[in-house]
Amino acid sequence: MNCLVTAGPTCEPLDQVRRLTNASTGRLGVELANYLVDRGHVVSLLLGALASWAGPCRANHIERFTTVADLHQRLQQQARKPVDAVFHAAAVSDFRFGHVFEQPTPGELRLLETAKYPTRSGVLLAELVPTRKLIAELRTLFPGAFLAGWKFEVDGTRHSVIQRCLDQLCGCNTDVCVANGPAYGPGYGIVTPGGEVVHAADAAELYARLERRLHAQ
Question: Is the whole model's pTM more than 0.85, yes or no?
Answer without folding.
Answer: yes
